[in-house]
Amino acid sequence: MFADFDQIMERLATKQLWDFAGGVHPDGHKGLSNQHQIADAGLPDYLYIPIKQHIGVDAELIVNVGDRVKSGQPLTESHNPFAVPVHASSSGEVIAIDEHIAAHPSGIKEATITIKVDGLDTQYNFDPVNNYNTRDKAEIVEAICKAGISGMGGAGFPTHLKSNNVKPIEFLIINGVECEPYITADDRLMREHAWQIRQGIDVLNYLLKPRQVLIAIEDNKPEAFETMSIACQQQDNYQVISIPTKYPAGGEKQLIQMLTSREVPSDGLPVDVGCLMYNVGTCYAVADAIIEGKPLTKRVVTLTGKALEKPQNFWVKIGTPVEHLLQLSGYNPDKQEYPRIIMGGPMMGFTLSSVKVPVIKTTNCLLAPEKNELAIVEDERACIRCSACADACPISLLPQQLYWYSTSKDYEVAQQYNLFDCIECGACAFVCPSEIPLVHYYRIAKAEIRQQKVEKEKSEKAKQRFEARKARLLKEKKEREEKHRLAAEARKRAMQSDDSGAKDKIAAALARAKAKKAGQATTEAPKESSGAPQAQSQQDKVAAAIARAKAKKAAQQSDNAASEKEQNTETQKTEDNPSQDDKKAKVAAAIARAKAKKAAQQSEDANEPKQENDQQASEESKPASEISEQDKKAKIAAAIARAKAKKAANKKANDE
Amino acid sequence: MTFTLIAILSFAALALIFGALLGFASIKFKVESDPLVDQIDNILPQTQCGQCGYPGCRPYAEAIANGDEINKCPPGGEATIKELADLMGVEAKPLDAAHGTEDVKKVAYIREAECIGCTKCIQACPVDAIIGAAKQMHTVIIDECTGCDLCVEPCPVDCIDMVPLAESSQNWKWDFNTVTVGDIPIRQL
Q: Among A206, A383, A630, B129, which has the highest number of CB atoms less than 10 A from its own CB?
């Protein structure tokens, strides 16, 4: 179906290329920043290093607040293949590990390590992989992972995952296209460090064993093309290719299509069509990691836009706040309509919410446009169905349909129109005569759909848990019933086996109970009268017990207006209680007090004698409560009081 | 006469054969389809909150299958109503305000210093998302909590709050109305 290797090589030899659909030709504005050498941005006072700067999961922290770190020292450690470690980009003291505004359009705060820079820039001990071409591949992949390298073109996919490839690779493509307007970071890097990029490519070449290495550079960067051609001329299977300037030729799938005519399947990866792609910046970092053992702690960032006095490229330590760079390049906010800094290019970038945002591994450009340099979309009009967007779309989607279904929240259909194949390049919004920020709507729809998927998974899990719980409760109930049934059967059997014996037992038990009752009746009177002379503690206990009993009774009365007949049995209960220990009695008293309170509240409109009863109960419980001043008891009382208050409030609400 | 008889008999015979054939096919090639209740249950958000007036999502699914209104599920909101309307072939209606309103996603949070360890919330939780034991502090497993609210009422000391889920860059929805930043510059003059 697609062109095979030989056909492609033949075609490339004639310097003819294929093309991808659509695309736009925005003004490059590259001359603003590509005329000067890459300068060193120096050291800021503080470095803000986000723990996660790539696609995947967080790595584990291995430093603490107060630790002194050296330049290049790892701050996190990766145990998960999807985690990439981050490193201190200069020496200093870790002063905080908390939330800081992230380099993300939302301006949400994310976990960040803050380092107070000491200005010495002492280096950590690096451990290069010597003679890498004799080493095991796994060793090299591990070294790349440890150096914290993730794709520097923009997406930030972990480089070691990409490099740990087992499928056969025909083309290793090095992306030096840099198609987005204004950005010249890769351009300057290729011009000045072509040799080191070549070394990085050599490492990848050894690792992946492709049949051919293609280095693609847009034809608006002739100097970079030349230097890269010179750097790569000794290698037989390296070919530097100049491609026509067209946005978004630097997109992974678009570049593959342009060079090889192969299309990466919708849900596939470049590997599926025998290609792998790396950014030139990533190659530079790989060379650093393998040959010098240096982790990724700095990158080239383009500072451009007419609101800057000296637009140019800088070597920037990862974690440097944008603020520091703006000062260096003479940012003049007066030249703008309102202060606005764009991270990334004008097509795919986003406006920063704060100048405290740090530069991260994927930051390639900071753009400060002058008044009227970039339009501010505020005049969105209705879609006129001109289909200019469909002509511009590099993936041949139907942007106006996607727009329609995204805004009407018909996400099911939007997905049928392959919303998730959209690379958010912005070509459709660029050509739209109605100035509709189309990508904006796709992003909202994509986020919404992702969220719905997460919720669907969660609801599935909730359902399972709910059903498991139901099954468990049912099982417990059955077990309980079974136990009762067995017990009943055992009783029955016992009754049947010795009928007379059981009857005797019952008769004996009845007799015992009668005897006890009689005994209690006689001792009741003397005990009540001799309550006063008893010891203090004994009195407390009795008082507490009585209070508890009364409260209980009162509560019962208010619930179902029970008769006063129970008074006798209540007082009987007090006889059992003195045997309990002091502490218990106190707690009981506290509870009783609370209960009494509640009973009082509940029976506000009840009859007189009952109210007296309540009063009595609460009065009697007072001495006990005075003793229970200890912490624990106080807490319990407070908790119970809260509970009562809530109940009373509920009751009131219900009554009303 | 005989012709008529032959015709009647032959058609009767054919009818019998085809009837038998169809009957056999309907058993042999029976298509196992999801019963309607299961399909509805899959659409519902499974919070088991009972705001619809039924004790859980499944009972509500059964009620819908038996002709109840589809707009009684506040946690599911508009999206769920839309899906249910598609499935049931009825008109989508706005959410019935009598059962509550659509709200941001929340999870239960126990103020642990005030928890007295009564286990009442554990018993109330429909998805076993609360851990703890008698007289021990309880806590909510945020990832399992469906935000159903059912644990708030039984708590005797009112130490459970429903807090909105924190927004992160992962679940941020590009809402430019609430966040003034994040426009896409794109156009050049």
A: B129
